[in-house]
Amino acid sequence: MKRQDVLFIVIASLFIGCQEQRKQSGIETIEVHLNKNEIRTSAIFSDVELIQLETNDNSLLSNISKSYLGDDHLFIKSSHELFLFNKTGEFVLKISDMGNGPNEYTRLSDFDVDETMKEIHILDKAQKKVLVYNYRGECLRSFPFDFWAIKLIMGENEKTYLYSGNEDSPSNKYKINVATASSFGDRLFQIDSRKKGYLHVNSAQNFYWRNGAIYFYEAFNDTIYSLTEGVPQYYINYDQAISSSFFDRDFQNIMSFFQEFNKEGFVNSTHNAFESDNNLFFSCFHGGTKYFNVYDKNSKTCFSYNNIIEDQLFRDYEIPFVDDDFEFWINRENEITYYIPAQRIKENLDNLQDQKLRETISSINDDDNPVIIYCKIKSMNGV
After folding, report:
1. How much helix, strand and coil, in percent to the nearest 5, is found in the chain?
2. What does residue 187 show for φ and ψ, rounded to 5 degrees?
3. What is the pLDDT of residues 267-302, one digit of tens each?
4. Under a CB-based contact definition with an 8 Å cutoff, are residues 85 and 52 in contact?
5. Which of 152, 255, 319, 328 is most buried, by the most CB atoms less than 10 A from its CB?
6. 325-329: which pairs have CB atoms within 8 A and are 24 or more residues apart?
7. What global pTM score does this model have?
8. How far is it, in rounded angstroms, from Cα 124 to Cα 105?
């Protein structure tokens, strides 16, 4: 039996399986009771810094759909362009090779960075390929494949994990395909035939790193998986959890699915997950409210919040967590970046606690690039 089939057998029954199966498997179960509360960033993060991005005709961002802070550079995906800034916010270069040529992409679907090799891997869903660039913006090579993929993350030993969501094709029936330097190997999580016709949701993030391992999660799924070990890691149990039988209904499209989903009052999870030694953090949506959840691994308790107050740089500034596009962008280990629009920074200049910092960014304009907030994740005992 092939290794990829063994991995599938280990986890397939748990992907849509019942809670009893999860308990027997030894997966850590997280009980979540959603409540509207407020948490301050000083309880979650440390070493907070503000990075003002240079704004000019070449560096102007239309949005931020992914951000990654490396050893020397800040990488930002905006629409179908990739921008590089240094760690002080100065603009370095832009990758914008739109086209149908061999070293061009028609859609910048996702990217990841290999800091050891100083390479950037760009996923093009439309052309079904990954292009590899150096830090000078030069395309070095590309490798094609014959299935749809919407996200990627680079693992150890030259592995690349490609996530297809529920988009199957004649050549692919799995959510995740694992590519090596020379070929494709493992396949994980067979696509549910009930969902492939309508449930196509492109979340901002589906992976995070922790202690050298890669973890995977997705919307409308209550389980977080270790891809490195090939096993489920956490099962998140909500009072309003979606049931597997709900997907047996005959949904004609994504709109009819959401209408019934909201009518039933289920929780939309899992989103924006990351982890520290003592805590697991993740977001969810319920009843029109976005929740930030903090699980304490030691006490086995979970706390939920619908409001996050920045109290380290500002005097009680409510960060735009409730915005649909707000994300905590996860770097390799224990580091987070998030952004605040320039207009909101300008409105709250008087609330900045550091006078020197206030003077430094006092000339910010409404239409300037967003300001990046960098911080490290605390390991908390109790919240």
Report:
1. 15, 40, 45
2. -125, 135
3. 999 999 999 999 999 999 999 999 999 999 999 999
4. no
5. 328
6. 325/63, 325/65, 325/204, 327/204, 327/205, 327/272, 328/272, 328/274, 328/281, 329/66, 329/67, 329/68, 329/69, 329/205
7. 0.91
8. 6
